[in-house]
Write a structure and sequence with these properties.
With about 190 residues, this protein is of the alpha+beta class. It folds into two domains: about 45 residues; about 140 residues, no CATH class. Helix content is about 30%, strand content about 35%. The strands form three sheets. The chain has a four-stranded antiparallel beta sheet with strand order 1-2-5-8. The chain has a four-stranded antiparallel beta sheet with strand order 9-6-7-10, with no helix packed on it. The radius of gyration is 28 Å and the shape is globular.
Length: about 190
């Protein structure tokens, strides 16, 4: 019985080796073909942003546009935006800011450009898990620097509400300002509701 099972094992090993020997040239030639195909592929540049921006809400005067990006979009936007990447990477007590506090974001653009931006938002959530009514815990006011005509910017809004409370940044309003700021820009101020 021992010899019989060993014979089966040996036959399986030989069959496996033969299969590998026979498939190796096929795999190799397939790899060469795929490399050749990659060399022939044309690289097309990314399309220019569309104006007016699609999916954005337009202000009453038609000059300013804003959109709340989804989390997945925010990751993609950060890959092409060094300022946003730095803002997301900022650490508080050794933890990335949006893993410590509830955050929001807004994408903005203006047809004529802005000297600076003023963003306001509320931080809302349930006081207790069993509550059915949301309440406002605070407000956030964020300022952002200059953007040129038809240039997009993604602005991170950071509260001081611990993320484990599952409060959300909502009611986001963006204002394109063309006056001289009388304060430090950029800035982020959270005011808790007493």
């Amino acid at each position: 019985m021992f010899e019989s099972s060993s014979g089966i094992v040996i036959k399986r090993v030989i069959a496996l080796l033969l299969a590998l020997i026979l498939l190796a040239p096929v795999a190799h030639s397939a790899e060469i073909s795929s490399v050749a195909a990659k060399k022939r592929a044309k690289i097309t540049p990314s399309p220019s942003p569309v104006w007016p921006p699609k999916g954005f809400v337009k202000s009453k005067d038609g000059n300013t546009f804003a959109k709340i990006p989804k989390a997945k979009e925010l990751v993609g936007l950060a890959s092409n935006d060094k300022a946003l990447t730095r803002a997301l990477a900022k650490k508080i007590d050794g933890v990335p800011v949006c893993e410590k506090y509830s955050c929001g974001a807004v994408q903005v653009a203006s047809a004529t450009g802005c000297t600076w931006w003023e963003i306001t938002a509320s931080v809302r959530g349930f006081a207790l898990p069993e509550d059915n009514i949301k309440k406002t815990f605070g407000t956030v006011r964020t300022t952002f620097g200059e953007t040129g005509p038809r240039k997009y910017a993604t602005i991170l809004i950071v509260s001081r509400e611990p993320i484990e409370l599952e409060h959300s940044v909502s009611g986001i309003k963006a204002s394109c300002r063309n006056d001289a700021p009388q304060e430090r820009v950029p800035s982020n101020t959270y005011t808790a509701v007493p």
